[in-house]
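Re: the multi-chain job from yesterday

Posting the exact lines I submitted so nobody has to dig through the queue logs.
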Amino acid sequence: MTALDGLSFAVDAGMIFGLLGPNGAGKSTTVKILTTLSRADSGAARVAGLDVVRDAERVRRSIGVVGQRPGLDPDATGRENLEMQAEIYGLVGGARRERVEQLLDRLGLADAAGRLAKTYSGGMQRRLDVAIGLVHRPQVLFLDEPTTGLDPEARVELWREIERLAGEEEMTILLTTHYLEEADRLAGRLAIVDHGRVVAEGTPDELKSELRGDTVEVELVESANGDATAALSRVSAISELTVDGRLVRARVPDGAAAIPLVITAFERGGMRVASATVARPSLDDVYLRHAGRSFQQAETGTKEVSA
Amino acid sequence: MTPLRHTWQVALRYIRALLRQPAWVGISLTQPVIWLLLFGALFKRTADIPGFGGDSYIEFLAPGVVVMLALSSAWIGMGFIEDINRGTMDRLLVSPIWRGALNLGSVAQSVLSLVVQSLIVIGLALAVGARFHNGIVGVAVLIGVAALLGAIFASLSNGIAVLTRQRETLIGIITMVTLPLTFLSTALMQQSRLPGWVQWVASLNPVNWAAEAGRSAAGANADWGLIATRAGFLALLLLASAAFATRAFNIYQRST
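And the result, structure tokens for all chains:
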């Protein structure tokens, strides 16, 4: 099986770089190779200037990893988890104590530090995972789907945390995510990955402004696949029209001006409109444009095969 | 220094987890205690068989049960599988931790609990009338060879765990291997009373090496030459199995 197919990107030091793609796009495989966990059959990768195969040992010293699955030890307390990690990197004595307490404090775990990690809530466990990844002040931090499985509140909280840490600790962060919103908010620059390849790369704003105009989204009362396309053929300046059951999406240069025309066109065609919205271009639109299918479709399409 | 510190950190982690569930001492002692008391009573008359060689069966059995205790170290790989499934192992593998420490730390924990259990079994054996003829030294040697055997089985178990990553596979292999190795040894029966082919297999069986050396160390006429050679074999096998467990991570990384 080919998980990666000529995937290539470069990240500048000190920034948050996002790898955005649906499940099964090859993000996790990429992270495993970059963090020395698995070896690529071919190709080369350098992290912090070091070759991940030849210099694996030094790469491991320079990176911190917050994996998709929790890496913490549930049968140890939060503090013990951090202490062990510190010892592994040679951080001992007073320096260790200071760093451990600092991280517990910074990630809001000071009160729970003496409790076994298995008693933590999902959000707390995730924060402990982040703290474990940070103990040795890594040059490069890998955040592999850091908020997957968290409730929306905990997710936003962790985003804030990541933003703050990125500023304070002066690290390069490689973030993989399948949440458009997460990539949009956190990544200074991002690469959209699909089927093991990078299909688009740039800052979120660059990517979005490539798509001139707005998205018009119309929900019909009844689904009308072919009819909808026919009805809208009379409206000028419409592009990238997709019809999915009752949901019709299209790109137009000026959303506000297009809405009345679109609604009139549907009514003339005998289709009743339930709702109509205009949106500025989103990363979803960027994805649709480059991958040829909506992000949602890509996600559901690969759900069965992703691990 | 670093390898030692890393090994200690891994051992500390497992020891701490163990101490947090004190029930383990009781549970893991059930089997050897049953062996000691039940087999001791069941086969009491065995010692009367001509040629068995003098003393009571319980005195013969006690070192054998200590050696059998060491076989329970074969289950240690279950902890590795749990670590792999949870993601804890991956977190350690992306760190610069010395690869050997992962196995040796786990082995250290298993040896430590083996020593505690052995002392309890030996105390119980003394209470029911067994004697250890060479005092503290004999008991220390007995526990020492049992520890070597336990460390071998723990390493093999960890290596297999890393390669298979399957709970069921590991359970299958452990059950398939440990029981025959126990009965194809002198842990429960005098060598001269074993069938010829079993004697031949036993001479290649590490469980038997430990049983022979341990029993000799506890017995009236300790054969220090035999003890030294058997302990040497066990030490060599331990080196090989520890190397196997450490190398297993290379294969794990290639197939992750």
